[in-house]
Amino acid sequence: MSAEQLKQVVFEAQSSNLISAGDQVDNLLERTNQSIIQFERSQEYQRWLHMDETEAHRSPPVDLIRQLQTMHASLTHVDNVMLVDTRLNKQYASNSTMNFGFGERYEEQLTRFAELGQRQALLGVSDETRFYTFYVQTLPLFRADPPKGYVVVHFNPNFFSEIVRNRQSQGNYMIVDQEHRIVRNSGLLDDAALQAHLPAELWSRIAAAPPEQAAALTHDGFYYLYMTPRQSQWSYVYAVEEQMLLQPIRQMRTATTAVTAILLLFSLGLYTASIQWSWKGWKRVARLLEHQDAKLPPHGDEFELMGQRISGILSQQMLLEEKMKHFLPEVKEAFLGNVLRRGVRSPQEHERVKQYNIPLDGRPYRVMVLEMDDYQAMLDLYDENDMHKFEYGVICVIRESCVEHDLACSALNIGGGRFAAVIECSGSAGQAPSLWHTLQAVSQFIKNYFPFTVTIGLSSSRSRPRHVNLSYVEAGDALRQKMIAGTGGILAYETTIAGVQAGTAPAWRELENELIQAVQAADREHAYDVLARIDTVALQGQGDQHYRGLQHQLIELALVLWRELSAGRPFPYEIDSLLQLSTLPQWTAWMRANCVDPLIDQLAHERRRQYEKICAWITQHLERRFEDDLRLSDVCRELGISVQLAKQALKDIQDTTFSEALFHIRMNKSKEWLQNGEIPLEEIATRLYYSNAQNFSRAFKKVVGMPPGQYRKAARS
Known about the structure:
It contains 33 helices and 15 strands. The relative contact order is 0.05. It has a five-stranded antiparallel sheet with strand order 2-1-5-4-3, sandwiched between helices. A five-stranded antiparallel sheet has the order 7-6-10-9-8, sandwiched between helices. By secondary structure, the protein is an alpha+beta fold. The longest helix is centred in the C-terminal third of the chain and has 42 residues, at 584-625. The chain crosses the membrane at residues 258-279. This is AraC family transcriptional regulator. Keywords: DNA-binding, Membrane, Transcription, Transcription regulation, Transmembrane, Transmembrane helix. It comes from Paenibacillus sabuli.
């Protein structure tokens, strides 16, 4: 394995961790936005909206404060939720103690938020000991009216610490805010040492990089991976010293070189011995190698000693092969985690699903999320080594139980006391006794032999790999119902959530997911096809479907699509205008004209701007290094972009390939040399990597229309 291959392995494994960290923050912000939307729809909010100054001073709005406390209780990792009334200059908080202690910081962040001129923002402020994070949202939502108030959500600082603390790596994980300050850091180097090494080029790369895509940069002895999520302006960076990164491969190369040298020397020795010694001795060597596990006498003739040495060399080679196998499980788990978060989209991902034997090959499957109950209390009772053993034991129990019940399964440790698995199944929970018995066996075994219990969330059944991310979300939603159902049980999505919440039918969620993916891919035809299926999905079970419920589903579809893909822009349409759409054809036509087409055009414009930047980087690089032996893979590695992205950018912007672009740059440079100098044709051909002057002359004539010698004479005359 070369150094570049090792970097690629590290890139795949660690970029998944960065995407995971970004997804956790995005999920937290999305849940927060959903809670704010529900708060805005409440009666308490409407009463506050129409409250005058006399009412506000006469009695505190107790119901409004209770609604804030309810929103606080529905969110995780939150210390306080505050409503700021800009009209009456009042503040209402779910946690009055926090409001008293952080009053000045809240005022500072509101002033800073007003200066940004945004509808919502994630802000951070630090003191000598801690870093505090606030999320500010303008009210009312989805309108360009002057703000009537703000919702300020104060996040618990331990949330961001947990994101980086769960990573186990030889480098450093960092969360960096929009002002290039390190919010959280976990690893070998402290904040001051890292801040001194972070290059200015990293920030320009992060600013130009598309959201939710990891990229790499090598600078001053450090290897950086970076990613910016779509929902916030904070970035996630992994940094490791190249010397530390390449240490395993250096050791492996040294060991491989030593083994190769020993094998070569002994091969030469054995070849010489085969000429001088009898075939009888060689038969003895062969017999000894066949029984290399048997204990040989400490003293024997040359053949016995030679057999011992060859046996030792073979053992070392087998040991090296075993070490190489340790890379595969880590890469497989990183890939599975990425698939659970984003779904299986590209043909390359489908091929890797088959390669890793993940049960997403068209057969029915479910996603299970298992959570250790009272995980935080266990962290206080047991040390890190014990927790690692417990987590390893849970993974083994899941895999062994699936094997025992003859079910294909791929499982991984998500972190934070949670585990996920994709399991082959058929039918609903009541019609899949094998799967149900497997989960009961897992729960009962852990209860009997481990010092804790577990709760299991189970998604509905699907067969399309592109929707595995929805199954993962469903399993997590079902697991959260343990607050009502209690711990230690198995909670199936269709029996705990589906059919209770409006708009959560699997077919509707799959349509929503497919529409988002089609718009993201700028596949207008596919997006139209998905919209055409709205009437089929919406009218399923129409006997008990109320028109207001359907109207709510359609409005929610438009809001979700805009929130996911508009890069933070506010929803530009009034909800009242959407309520005037009275038929499904009107809705699909409105979605085409006002959501799908504008978003695809916006994404296409952003993609073209990105491609133009990439083409400019490649062209500048080729103009500086045209005398080097350049390969597209090497150029992309130095620029921190993927080969596929570079090919697509050159094709879309310049209608050319990498080889053609390099060829024309070299031809233009050869024209300058012929016009302004006396450089011989042989030297020009050599500097431009032609085997001889004749090949260069043929290429030059094909482009210019005349041989280089004639071109030189014409330029001078």
